[in-house]
Write a structure and sequence with these properties.
Distance between the termini of chain B: 15 Å
Oligomer: heterodimer
Structural class of chain B: alpha/beta
Strand content of chain A: 15-25%
Order of helices and strands of chain A: HHEHEHEEHEEHEEEHEEHEHHHHHHH
Number of strands of chain B: 11
Radius of gyration of chain A: 30 Å
Largest sheet of chain A: 6 strands, mixed, barrel
Largest interface: A-B, 24 and 30 residues
Order of helices and strands of chain B: EEEEHEEHEHHHEHEHEE
Helix content of chain A: 55-70%
Radius of gyration of chain B: 17 Å
Largest sheet of chain B: 6 strands, mixed
Strand order of the largest sheet of chain B: 7-8-9-4-10-11
Strand content of chain B: 25-35%
Strand order of the largest sheet of chain A: 3-4-9-6-8-7
Structural class of chain A: alpha+beta
Shape of chain B: globular
Number of helices of chain A: 15
Chain lengths: ~425, ~230
């Protein structure tokens, strides 16, 4: 359509002016993009960290378990801080509890590499946590014998494939058993994938801790009653510690929403400033081309034809600005970790992520690593790309409306008289 | 006598510049027959261009009516008037008024694009017209790469592309040397003979006047002789 060729050629005719105008949009869009990517990054990190907690609403463990710790170089022995399986029924009877799943986690070496192994009841585990993200093969099934699901990173590290067998060694005399690999899970977070899942019965068998568990994962009937149920558990069952990862996630999400709003506002202000550049350029363009508008009207262009020509031009500025802004933002987001290393690492504590993480699932080396990870990896998501790109286009159109309207309103005779 | 294509009835136009009113046209009653090459002559400021702009639907009269092919164009709304300019009349200006960023071919195509004609057909018709005005080998040139005479021929092609019944020209030879002016007038005569289009030409140029089939002289906003 000739509307576009006129628009493109006018932008080309004034390259420098076009470039300067576009850069106003680029600054706003790239700023917006990197800030949104940062928030997305935090969001996904927060979510996968909570996922590492098991995806359960509440985690019940022995109140002494943290004093002893489970990782460490001498963590050869299974954690002594266990719970008796009988409390499973006690917790199951508390009002608001929808489902529970007992778990026995212990430290163990697999083909010589020390990892955390979780013994779970497959069915209830899936109900309570929503299950693992299986990348290959399948999850455990009820009453399976000597089957194991390993993390993807661990599989790659040990160079294993589904169908092979691995040897688990708890470090105790004579406690070495062979397991069949039936599946691989993926969390997207490297350190979480250095773990394995077997059935609860197999876990108790290999450790010799029959009738004992280390955690009970609880799912509530409704997310809103999690904290009530949690306090009911800690008051009715003696000697347990209660952690509520979803509550932490909600809190973190609230913080992230506030942060998103804050960042988006900064980006919008920058974009707003940039849009004045577009308005200014378009007004100049309209004035410069008054005669051209007169000619077009004289040979039969309607007001909306004129409007289309100028809107096309400002839309193009917006599209180029949006595209270049997203590109520049992506590069900045990519460079962000190097540019800001250390600055944001401390910022983790306000989100309260460190505490519960190191509490329920921290395996020594995990907790420190996460605080760095959470703030240094902006996530470039398709939705952010689409949002920022269309925002550029939208600002282009918006900034072009008034100049285009002015152009379309010109009277042909007067416009033609313009030199 | 052939049928009338343009008829004005008591046409008046008053311009207001601040507190001063200028009477540009005063009760003009003009009749132009279809197929004429009508020359409108007169001193500067006599109202020639005003009359042409009114007939072309670029401006609205203060009083009076203009009938083109029996239709009262003074009663048309803005959109209908734009449509009238697009399909019924073609404009040729003294300073060619081509769009500087577009090629000769694209300039000729504009009215077709505005009328919604598909691209291939547009191209073909525009090329045919450029051939008719002798510029087929200049089709891809921008206006600033063409001579004045060539630009004016592109402008004529653009004015003719939608097959208008009237072509309005305001001092079309005003910026041309006499050789180009003569060539342009011969082209107009030729087109008039072939297609029977009516030309209304505002001019000072004797080369043009000699080739008009009829001359109207305007003085102080009134037609003097017909």
């Amino acid at each position: 359509m000739f509307v576009w060729s006129i628009a493109v050629r006018n932008l080309r005719r004034r390259r420098l002016r076009t470039a300067l105008t576009v850069s106003g949009i680029v600054v706003g869009i790239s700023m917006m993009f990197i800030l949104l990517s940062l928030v997305s990054g935090m969001e996904s990190q927060a979510r996968s960290m909570v996922r590492a907690l098991g995806g359960a609403d509440i985690i019940v463990s022995n109140s002494t378990s943290f004093r002893n710790g489970m990782g460490g170089p001498l963590g050869a022995l299974p954690s002594p801080s266990t719970l008796d399986e009988s409390i499973v029924d006690a917790i199951g009877g508390i009002q608001g509890v929808y489902a529970i799943s007992p778990q026995f986690s212990f430290s163990c070496s697999i083909n010589g590499r020390r990892i955390t192994v979780y013994g779970v009841e497959p069915k209830s585990y899936e109900i309570v946590t929503g299950g693992l993200n299986i990348a290959e093969g399948r999850f455990l099934i009820e009453n399976s014998n000597r089957e194991i699901v390993l993390g993807k990173a661990l599989m790659e590290f040990l160079n294993l494939t589904v169908g092979q067998t691995v040897s688990l060694n708890t470090g105790q005399e004579g406690r070495e058993q062979t397991f069949n690999i039936v599946g691989v899970f993926e969390t997207g977070m490297f350190f979480q994938e250095y773990a394995a899942y077997i059935t609860l019965a197999d876990a108790q068998n290999i450790t010799g801790e029959y009738g004992l568990i280390t955690q009970i994962l609880v799912k509530c009937e409704d997310p809103s009653i999690v904290s009530d149920v949690a306090s009911a558990i800690s008051s009715t069952v003696p000697g347990v510690r209660v952690t509520t990862p979803t509550a932490v996630l909600q809190q973190a999400n609230q913080m992230l929403n506030t942060l998103t709003m804050f960042f988006a506002t900064i980006g919008l202000v920058a974009l707003f400033a940039g849009s004045f550049g577009v308005v200014n350029t378009m007004m100049m363009s309209v004035t410069e081309r008054t005669r051209e508008i007169g000619i077009l009207k004289a040979i039969g262009a309607k007001s909306y034809d004129i409007m289309k020509i100028f809107l096309a031009e400002s839309l193009l500025i917006g599209l180029i600005g949006g595209g270049a802004g997203v590109a520049a933002g992506s590069i900045l987001a990519y460079l962000f970790p190097t540019l800001t290393s250390g600055i944001f690492a401390i910022g983790i504590s306000p989100f309260g992520m460190r505490n519960p993480f190191s509490g329920a699932a921290g395996r020594g080396w995990g907790s420190r690593a996460t605080s760095a990870i959470i703030f240094t990896t902006p996530a470039i998501t398709p939705i952010n790309i689409i949002v920022c790109f269309s925002l550029g286009a939208f600002v282009g159109i918006l900034a072009g409306l008034y100049p285009a309207w002015r152009a379309s309103r010109m009277r042909p005779v007067e416009a033609l008289r313009h030199v | 006598m052939s049928r009338l294509i343009v008829r004005t009835v008591d046409l008046s136009k008053v311009y207001r510049r601040g507190k001063v009113s200028v009477l540009a046209l005063r009760n003009v009653n003009l009749q132009i027959a279809a197929g004429e090459i009508a020359g409108i002559m007169g001193p500067s400021g006599s109202g020639k261009t005003t009359l042409l702009n009114l007939i072309g639907g670029l401006d609205k009269p203060t009083n009076g009516r203009i009938f083109v092919d029996g239709v009262d164009i003074t009663a048309l709304g803005e959109r209908e008037l734009a449509d009238y300019r697009l399909k019924k009349v073609g404009f040729v200006f003294q300073f060619y008024n081509l769009i500087p960023t577009l090629t000769a071919l694209e300039n000729v195509e504009i009215p077709l694009a505005l009328a919604g004609v598909p691209k291939n057909e547009r191209r073909e018709r525009a090329l045919n017209l450029l051939k008719m005005v002798g510029l087929e080998d200049r089709a891809e040139h921008k206006p600033d790469e063409l001579s004045g005479g060539e630009q004016q021929r592109v402008a004529i092609a653009r004015a003719l592309i939608n097959n208008p019944s009237i072509v309005l020209a305001d001092e079309p030879t005003g910026d041309l040397d006499s050789k180009s002016a003569l060539a342009l007038m011969n082209l107009i005569k030729d087109l008039n003979r072939r297609n029977g289009q009516t030309f209304i030409i505002v001019t000072h140029d004797p080369i043009v006047a000699e080739r008009c089939t009829k001359i109207y002289t305007i003085r102080d906003g009134q037609i003097e002789s017909a």
